[in-house]
Specification:
Largest sheet: 2 strands, antiparallel
Domain GST C-terminal: 78-194
Domain GST N-terminal: 1-76
Order of helices and strands: HHEEHHHHH
Protein name: Glutathione S-transferase
Shape: globular
Distance between the termini: 12 Å
Number of helices: 7
Pfam family, one: GST_N_2
Helix content: 40-55%
Number of strands: 2
Structural class: mainly alpha
Length: 194
């Protein structure tokens, strides 16, 4: 789904690595991930899924990022850097995406999303806590690990660069704003269609 940050991660790494791919648009709003055919590809009924030429399927956006980037400049050969990248991938999935992405979805796509004011406010508080962690880490850094773009940045960028759609502001997060610009200017970096 073109508007999904998790799908954006995969399209970004494929584009950055100049890998050939066929993009198949799946609309979760129409229940296309719940069909028997799709559930054979991913029993969890979620996108994205990377399907390899031999028919092997790899679900979960950050697992796909790792699979595609593990031997490239967007990962690392250094064990500590690998660990730091994984830390940020886990942070993105547990402390960032559940709040930033959900608010964006509720405010931009859900029919009754804006009626969930208590959920939106709770997510805004928790999302801002995640942005505060990022802000502090980026105080003297341009990227999250090793002063170069890695899959940690790609994962965090996916929903951060459209966080304003979910009611978030970067007014108090100048380091995050600077980082977003650094990622945005990276050659071949793509943005979610808004």
């Amino acid at each position: 789904m073109t508007v999904s940050g998790n799908c954006h991660k995969i399209k970004s790494i494929l584009t950055l690595l100049d890998l050939p791919f066929e993009w198949i648009e799946i609309d979760t709003r129409k229940g296309e991930t719940k069909t028997p055919e799709f559930l054979k590809i991913n029993p969890n009924g979620k996108i994205p899924v990377l399907q390899l030429a031999d028919g092997t399927n790899i679900p979960e956006s950050n697992a796909i990022l790792y699979y595609l980037a593990r031997d490239t400049e967007f990962f690392s050969k250094d064990l500590l850097e690998q660990t730091r990248i994984l830390e940020w991938l886990f942070f993105e999935q547990y402390s960032h995406e559940p709040y930033v992405a959900v608010n964006r979805w509720l405010m931009k796509y859900a029919v009754d999303g804006r009626e969930n004011s208590s959920v939106l406010e709770n997510n805004r508080v928790k999302g801002n806590k995640a942005f505060a962690v990022m802000e502090d880490h980026l105080r003297d850094k341009n990227f999250f690990v090793g002063e170069r773009l890695t899959i940690a940045d790609i994962a965090l960028y996916a929903y951060s660069h459209v966080a304003e759609d979910g009611g978030f502001s970067f007014e108090d997060f100048p380091n995050v704003r600077r980082w977003l610009e650094n990622v945005r200017r990276f050659p071949k970096m793509i943005s979610i269609q808004r």
